[in-house]
């Protein structure tokens, strides 16, 4: 997975943007030298269709589903779609899979993903399908190590990256998403960051993740303490943000997918992507 480079771009923005703007944006990223583009599946746009549009618009950029949810995609359909993308765009698509989406009471994520992977593995493919798993806890990280190329983490601190590397071992791939905000005023930065983090600090499985990382009830209350906010959203000027992102690499990440937040509605993060490219790309 070295072909993804050390840093990539992650965004929710394409969920609502017209296709023409999406194509223009990823072509610009490719021209700037970015090697990987990540997007989630959250608001209705189907993961494999969107990946196909982005791959068709570019020549070298790697496109990563980060993540495709297992529930809307029966294993047979997911395998067929991923196999087609692997055949049409050799080496340029990475299938990220995860449990997310609609709650399924009584269903254990680890068991569900293990069964899903069994169904995928029962099917043959003429082209190699590269896959990673969304993983946080030790058992899911072990599954990512043993049944995929590695793991993607989301909204974690640098300490978690070091812990994840210890579980994955030296060979499995570890990608870390991290949110960044171009704002140097502490009060303004933390206000925007708290708005972004609200959902994550109030949903049970995210709260459980943060507690495992050592955050206290005080850290999680009231929109989040300065400590947890500063750990989960790197804010400041470009140089400060770049230095903080490199801490994940030093802690064991192979790749950091950077999510720019704080972009006004109707605007695009492309100017900030350019600044990040100047600071992070070789």
Average predicted local confidence, pLDDT = 96
Number of strands: 9
Q: Give me the strand/helix succession.
A: EHEHEHEHEHEHEHHHHEHEH
Strand line-up of the largest beta sheet: 1-2-3-4-5-6-7-9
| Overall body shape | globular
Summing up helix and strand content along with how strands pair, one would put the structural category as: alpha/beta
Count of runs of 4 or more consecutive helical residues: 12
Major sheet characteristics: 8 strands, parallel, barrel
Extract low-pLDDT stretches: none
Range of helix content:
40-55%
Sheet-strand content, in percent, reads 15-25%
Q: Give the CA-CA distance, first to last residue.
A: 17 Å
State Rg: 18 Å
Short description:
It is built from 12 helices and 9 strands. It has helices at about 20-30, 45-55, 75-90, 110-120, 140-145, 160-170, 185-195, 205-210, 215-220, 225-230, 240-250, 270-280; strands spanning about 5-10, 35-40, 60-70, 95-100, 130-135, 150-155, 175-180, 235, 255-260.
């Amino acid at each position: 997975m070295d072909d993804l480079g050390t840093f990539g771009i992650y965004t929710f923005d394409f969920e609502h943007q017209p296709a023409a703007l999406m194509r223009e944006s990823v072509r610009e990223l490719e021209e700037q030298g970015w090697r990987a583009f990540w997007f989630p599946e959250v608001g209705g746009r189907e993961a494999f269709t969107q990946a196909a549009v982005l791959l068709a618009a570019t020549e070298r950029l790697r496109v990563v589903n980060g993540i495709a949810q297992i529930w809307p995609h029966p294993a047979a359909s997911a395998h067929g779609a991923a196999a087609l993308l692997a055949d049409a765009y050799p080496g340029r698509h990475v299938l990220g899979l995860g449990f997310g989406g609609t709650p399924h009471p009584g269903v254990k994520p680890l068991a569900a993903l293990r069964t899903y992977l069994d169904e995928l593995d029962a099917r043959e493919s003429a082209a190699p399908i590269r896959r990673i798993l969304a993983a946080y806890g030790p058992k899911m990280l072990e599954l990512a190590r043993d049944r995929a190329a590695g793991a993607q983490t989301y909204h974690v601190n640098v300490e978690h990256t070091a812990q994840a590397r210890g579980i994955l071992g030296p060979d499995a791939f570890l990608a870390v998403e991290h949110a960044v905000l171009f704002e140097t005023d502490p009060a303004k930065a933390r206000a925007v960051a708290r708005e972004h983090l609200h959902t994550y600090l109030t949903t049970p499985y995210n709260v459980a993740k943060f507690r495992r990382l050592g955050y206290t009830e005080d850290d999680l209350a009231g929109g989040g303490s300065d400590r947890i906010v500063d750990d989960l959203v790197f804010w400041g000027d470009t140089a400060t943000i770049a230095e903080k992102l490199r801490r994940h690499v030093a802690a064991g990440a192979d790749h950091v997918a950077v999510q720019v937040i704080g972009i006004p509605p109707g605007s695009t993060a492309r100017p900030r992507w350019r600044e990040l490219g100047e600071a992070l790309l070789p």
